[in-house]
Every structure is written in structure tokens, then in C-alpha cells.
Write a structure and sequence with these properties.
The chain is α/β, with parallel strands linked by helices. It folds into 3 domains: 158 residues, P-loop containing nucleotide triphosphate hydrolases (Rossmann fold), CATH 3.40.50; 176 residues, Rossmann fold, CATH 3.40.50; 79 residues, GMP Synthetase, Chain A, domain 3 (2-Layer Sandwich). The protein contains 12 helices and 15 strands. The strands form 3 sheets. A 6-stranded mixed sheet has the order 2-3-1-4-5-6, with helices on both faces. Helix 11 crosses helix 12. The longest helix has 16 residues. It is elongated and about 85 Å long.
Length: 441
Amino acid sequence: MSLPVVAIIGRPNVGKSSLFNRIIGSDTAIVSDEPGTTRDRHYARAEWNARAFWLVDTGGLREDSSLPMDLEIRKQVKQAIEEADLMLLVVDAQVGVHPSDARVAELVRESGKPWLVVANKVDDPRSTDFYEFYKLGAGDPHPVSAQNGKNSGDLLDELVKKLPPEQEDVVGDDLRIAVIGRPNVGKSLFINKLLGEERLVVSDVAGTTRDSIDTPFTFHGRRMIFVDTAGLRRQSRTEDGIEFYSSLRTRRAIDRSDICLLLIDATEGLHNQDLKIAALAWEAGRGLIMIVNKWDIKEDKGDKTAAKFEKECAEKAPFLKFVPFLFTSALTGQRVTKVLDVIAEVDAERRKRITTSVVNDALQQLLARRQPPQAAGHEIKLNYATQVETNPPAIAVFGNNPEMLQEHYVRYLHNGFREFWGFKGNPLKILLRRKSGSSAD
């Protein structure tokens, strides 16, 4: 990625995620009093004084723990340090210098990269002795309160000074791709295989990913932002506060994405929860690609063909017949990189614009095949149509009594327009509008 990277590191529960949220100006990272809430690297784009950079929130380092998840977090933090151009070592000014702070500082010094010590939880610098953190070896500590934002501007001024010179960015808008699905269907493994590195924590424990994690990636000169999200459970299983907010952020990740990759487990088939997640993305107007993971296991059993699988899915949710399916194995890498070509295709369909004259010609052909059913005592006449939106596409159909048009005929128009132009992988909105100057009959 062309933007510099700033990594926030430190031991658990010193306020790293709170500082992350303060800098980017939103509640993107999950903040909790429970140590270890942040597990993966969490990317977000930030800007200060017209200087943009990637900010990375990391899990809390427990140097003495041998628990598998803590070892994974340590591995991820080390990788974040390797990628970073600058590091913010966050410490708790209320506690003072902790032995773990010194060990994390040693890890940072070994990297040879610039870093700042951020003394968090300093609501009043006059009553807090934060200068003892000078001994960590990064110069003067920077006192802040991530909770209320005190001195955060001064910290950002210093942060920007430490960034490397600006580099030319990839031209064009970022294409945001949310990787969604139920817990433990292989979302993180899929992205790791696609990117060719262990960018995200992969675990057999369902629910390993709790936040939405932004991972930049460039393909054929176009920058894509892959967002690995916490698996969406049924609402009854999200009583825990962290699980609730994870689910909420997954929905927000869908809302701020352009295209969603919905991973489903081929060995389990299409669950009702898969359908709900697909509908959530579709109704939000997002492009959608169905990734059928673990297909190698199904092929070994020889009990299902891809065409049959797609047909069964479309029978459960008719809109899925407009969605491309990709049958993959994140474990072996089978057809994983093919998703990049499919994303490019769905993106092109999403941005497709049809001229008004061509849309009108198509409408006349559809009317010639089947006229709209008339309402009792009212004539229904459709006059013309035009595409009014892209991303996702929308076609407005004008007539004298559009509100009286029956739903099945709207579906007929929808399917007819798709026969002409496809709009593969994207929802197509049909907007019914009253012709200018006409009045209800």
C-alpha cells in the first residue's frame, strides 16, 4: 500500500482501541474493559493536517502467556510491526511503567523503526506523573486521554512529523469488499490464501474474528479493501456485549462496502442464516458473490454438482439466480484467486450505464410482449423509462398510475431488463414514478 502505516501496540487494556477510535473519529474498533478484546490487526484510513495514513490497532501483548490465542496475537503484532512505518506504544499512565511495557518497548526497538510513547489516561497532566515513561527510550512521552480526546491533537501533530515522505497513491476510488458469512466458515483463511500471507488470525475456534478488519490490496492498478468480518450469528446467540457489537460492525461493514463475498460451507449446504446474511447485503444495495468454500470435500464425495447446488440455492432465494457462484477451497487454494476476476466483473456490472433510448426500446419490447394488467376503473399506461442510478443500478419507469401497478408485473419488468443487460451480481431497483403533467385517472 502506498500510504504510510502507523501501528498502535502495547500490553492489554491500556486503551489502544480507544486511541484508535479517537484518531479515526468513530467507534470502529470494539472497546471493552475485558483484556484481549482486539485480536487481529485492524486497519482504518486516517487523516490529519491533510496527511493520510493507515492506522492499525493490534491485540494486547502478553509476553508471559503460552495460551494459543495469545501466541497468535503476538505473531500478529510482530507482523504489524514489520509492516509499520511508525509505531505508537500505548501505556497506562494511571498504572505507571509495567514490566510488560519494557518488554514491548524492547520489541519495538529491535525493529529499528521510529516510535512514540503514548501515555494514555492522562486527564490532568499536572496531577499525573507520566515522565517516568521517559526511561522506555523513545524520548518524551506524549500524554493523552483517549477517552475525552485531551492532547490528541498534539499527538497527531507529532505523528505526522514522523511519517515518511508522501508517496503517489493508486489512482481511482477504493473498491471495498466485505467478506461475510456465519462463524467458522473459513473467511479469514480465504483472505489469507488470496493475499498469500497469514494476514489474519486463523483458528478452529468459532468467532476468532470479532472486529471488521480492513486489508488493502491492489489488483491490476485498482486498490481493493478487503474487510474480514466477525461471523453473523442469530440474534439469540449474541447476548454477550462483544458479540453484539461484532454483529453490529459486520452490518456496518456491509453498509460501507461496494461488494460482499458471502462464504458458505459446502459440506453444510445453504443455511437459513446464510440466506439472511445474503438478503442483508442484497437489500442494502451491495454487489454479491457467493463463495462456496470446502467444495473439494463435496467433490471427493461426488454427491453434488455445482449447477445443482446453484439451482437449490435459487429455489430458496430467487434473487440468487442473479448472483455468481464460485466453488472454492480456502484450504487448498482451489479457484481462490478466480474471485478477483469475478469481483472485477461484478464491479463493471455495478457501474454499467444504459442510454435512455436503449432503455426505452427495451421497455417497448416488454410492453409489446405483455401489457400491464388494468386496475378496476383505471387505465394503467407506462410511457417511458430511463436508468437513473448506478452503484447499484436503478431504472425509473414513468406512467400515469404507477402506484397501481401490480407487484408481479414489476417483477416482469425487472426480469425483462435483466435479460437485456444482466447487471450480474447486483440488485436492480425498479422505481415507479408518475409521468410529469399526468394525473391519476
